[in-house]
Amino acid sequence: MGLHRPITIGRIDYANVWPIFHYAKQMLPDSRYIIDKRVPSALNGAIQRGEVDITAMSSFAYAQHADDYLLLPDLSVSAKGRVNSILLFMREPIERVLKGRIALTATSATSVHLLQIIMSLYYGASPSYVTMEPDLDSMLQHADAALLIGDPAIQASWQEQGLTVLDLGELWRKWTGCGMTFALLAVRKATAAERPEEVAAVLHALSESKRRSLLNPQPLIDQACRQLGGERAYWSRYFQELSYDFGAEEQAGLQLYFNYAQQLRLLPHEVRMQFFIDDTAIRVNE
């Protein structure tokens, strides 16, 4: 691959990460950076295989291989409560779902394990699970409930199908009092060591995109209406209710999630979050 190839950046192909990436491409020249769009599960594998250098990735997938990565500071896809795009659709009452079968999306890691944690530790239940492609009708033909994430979850929530819908972000908040972080921005340690200035440039571009997007979300709202449908009021609320920071509050909620995952043996080890440190400004001033 060599040290002089372009840096490859993984972008989750869902609206929930748009604020972090919307303006970044114009700050990252094509000759030095490639942006690769995939669903979360595909990016989780891609960074582990070295196909991407920096990526938005599922929080759970990060935890599985945390020793291989550094987190880009103060960037995440989080929610303090309702997330609106991590949804459990139930065609049966919750009492039957807890003893029944749940279809899980094949595109996620964090949300699947969040549901399993909630089912086990909050409800004290042990339903059976089947993993399927994210098609609500097909999933509900084979199960009592279906977990969808991202844009498919949003679009399914607009349909009048007589289903009960649980928002996992809202349920997690009700149970724990914490927010939940669904995705993080991570860089391979090898890339950070070999090309720190280029990693710093990506960090600056993503942070600036976040700042500009939150200052004026209207371009994102317009794009969402054109590309995914729905009303402007919905998308305005959607982007407002998500958090893109990763400060002490977000880290505490995610650490609790990791602890529960370890308790249930979904994770085999403790997770120690490590962050990329941008020392380019320090070197310039020396």
From TrEMBL:
It catalyses: chorismate = 3-[(1-carboxyvinyl)-oxy]benzoate + H2O. Pfam families: VitK2_biosynth. Its EC number is 4.2.1.151. InterPro entries: Menaquinone_biosynth (IPR003773), MqnA (IPR030868). Pathway: Quinol/quinone metabolism; menaquinone biosynthesis. It is an enzyme of class 4 (lyase). One of its GO terms (molecular function) is lyase activity. Keywords: Lyase, Menaquinone biosynthesis. It comes from the Bacteria. Catalyzes the dehydration of chorismate into 3-[(1-carboxyvinyl)oxy]benzoate, a step in the biosynthesis of menaquinone (MK, vitamin K2). Belongs to the MqnA/MqnD family. MqnA subfamily. This is Chorismate dehydratase.
